[in-house]
Amino acid sequence: MRNKRLPSFGTANLIKKSKETHPLTWRLNKEGNTIWLKEYIKKDGYLAIKRTLKELTPEEVIKQIKSSGLKGRGGAGFITGIKWSLTNKKNVKTFLLCNADEMEPNTYKDRLLLEQEPHLLIEGMIIAAYANNSNKGYIFIRGEYIDAINIINIAIKEARNKNFLGKNILKSDFSFDIFIHSGAGRYICGEETALINSLEGYRANPRNKPPFPGQIGVWGKPTVVNNVETLCNIPSIITNGVNWYHKLCLPGSEDNGTKLMGFSGKLKNPGLWELPMGITAMEIFEDYAFGMINGYKLKAWQPGGASTGILLPQHLKVQMCSNGILKLGTRIGTAILLAIDNTIKIVSFLKNIEKFFYRESCGWCSPCREGLPWIVNILKNLENNKGKYKDIDILIDLTRQLTNGKTFCGHGPGAAEPLISAIKYFRNEFDKLMV
Ligand SMILES: Cc1cc2nc3c(=O)[nH]c(=O)nc-3n(C[C@H](O)[C@H](O)[C@H](O)COP(=O)(O)O)c2cc1C
Ligand code: SF4
């Protein structure tokens, strides 16, 4: 059965888009159809790889991506050019992995790019592979993304037929090909080292870092892992240059470029839009999502997926960029915002989120394996009016065991973040459920 299609771009369809202002989405149509090879080429597609292979050395590509300041769009926000420059590629072939696991609840940005702009991703991967001395790339894709898997498969065949993939690409001495690996539906597979284990056929536990994948990654070889959206940014940076890229964001933002941002919940116009880094959450709420549906009020919101903090309506004036959101003690994450309305009880909301994190824990380290089910039990008891006087102290203590450095990977701290902020801003809702 076909997956339900993503709603295409909501109000963004009404906004005039150009390749200068919307490098990720200017080619898309309002029907949400895939941009296949013919149309992609007609709309400047594969110009960046032609230029790269003709004019740039791998070192020059890395220099350009580094100067652009592009940060990874997978959630951690590491500077892409630095990651590439730290990858060991001296006399050794590397692997390129595209992380298309996208299982963060309330996140659907990579799906749009995979389904509608497959050649933009392929072109970004070819350039990344050229820069990092890689002949083989894998797209590790969420198993439920059936349409996306089919579409990418067809696009890869199209690209091979025109020699954008394969041996001696466009008569150069560079060869590269892409293979798809679909996941079996575990959130932890999105963590880059668990992804590598899974690709190798092992249980998806995260690996020790260091060594980082750039030193020892898949099958013991240096490996670059990048998110779908990160890779989709590469072609336009090569074509339009670093200065252009720097000008895309708004004043005050330390993140450059544009970003796919969305807003979901009981909103008049929920959707997904390509927006400049540094836009305020209030602008997205009012000008793109058109505010709450009549009869609902905004009670709280999350800036970028289930593993980011819960914020209040007065925080909407914050700029959507990592330095802006950091001031509120949380992360921009995937930049898909969620509106929590006045009918939702914070304790019940959290119970659902934490249940997800508990189920998705790989069980490798005890604070996460033991702590998350304990948290879920307490939240369930509170929800059923069976809370005890000490519950809030236990919850606070459990979140302290889940901070960075106390767990083996970022899953535990991510699970703690919404709970810590909920206790900070909605303590009264917990207190009144304790006897
Ligand atoms: C529990 C967990 C889940 C993650 N899931 C994803 C994911 O679905 N997609 C993704 O790109 N990055 C995910 N990440 C981040 C990756 O580990 C890694 O930082 C990212 O793929 C690097 O790409 P980027 O530098 O282009 O952002 C996850 C991290 C953690 C800790
Ligand atoms: S924090 Fe959780 S998901 Fe990460 S290694 Fe530990 S048990 Fe596994």
UniProtKB/TrEMBL annotation:
SMART domains: NADH_4Fe-4S
Signal peptide range in chain numbering: none
Annotated catalysed reactions: a quinone + NADH + 5 H(+)(in) = a quinol + NAD(+) + 4 H(+)(out)
Membrane spanning stretches: none
Domain (NADH-ubiquinone oxidoreductase 51kDa subunit iron-sulphur binding) ranges: 347-392
GO MF term list: 4 iron, 4 sulfur cluster binding; FMN binding; metal ion binding; NAD binding; NADH dehydrogenase (ubiquinone) activity; oxidoreductase activity; quinone binding
Keyword DNA damage: no
Superkingdom, taxonomy of origin: Bacteria
EC number(s) given by UniProt: 7.1.1.-
Cofactor field: [4Fe-4S] cluster; FMN
InterPro entries, per the entry: NADH-UbQ_OxRdtase_51kDa_CS, NADH-UbQ_OxRdtase_suF, Nuo51_FMN-bd, Nuo51_FMN-bd_sf, Nuop51_4Fe4S-bd, Nuop51_4Fe4S-bd_sf
Keywords assigned by UniProt, alphabetized: 4Fe-4S, Flavoprotein, FMN, Iron, Iron-sulfur, Metal-binding, NAD, Oxidoreductase, Quinone, Translocase
Keyword NAD annotated: yes
Cross-referenced PROSITE patterns: COMPLEX1_51K_1, COMPLEX1_51K_2
Enzyme class, UniProt record, top EC level: translocase
Database matches in NCBIfam families: nuoF_fam (TIGR01959)
Record-stated family: Belongs to the complex I 51 kDa subunit family.
Its job: NDH-1 shuttles electrons from NADH, via FMN and iron-sulfur (Fe-S) centers, to quinones in the respiratory chain.
Protein name as catalogued: NADH-quinone oxidoreductase subunit F
Species assigned in the record: Candidatus Portiera aleyrodidarum
Top-level taxonomy: Bacteria, Pseudomonadati, Pseudomonadota, Gammaproteobacteria, Candidatus Johnevansiales
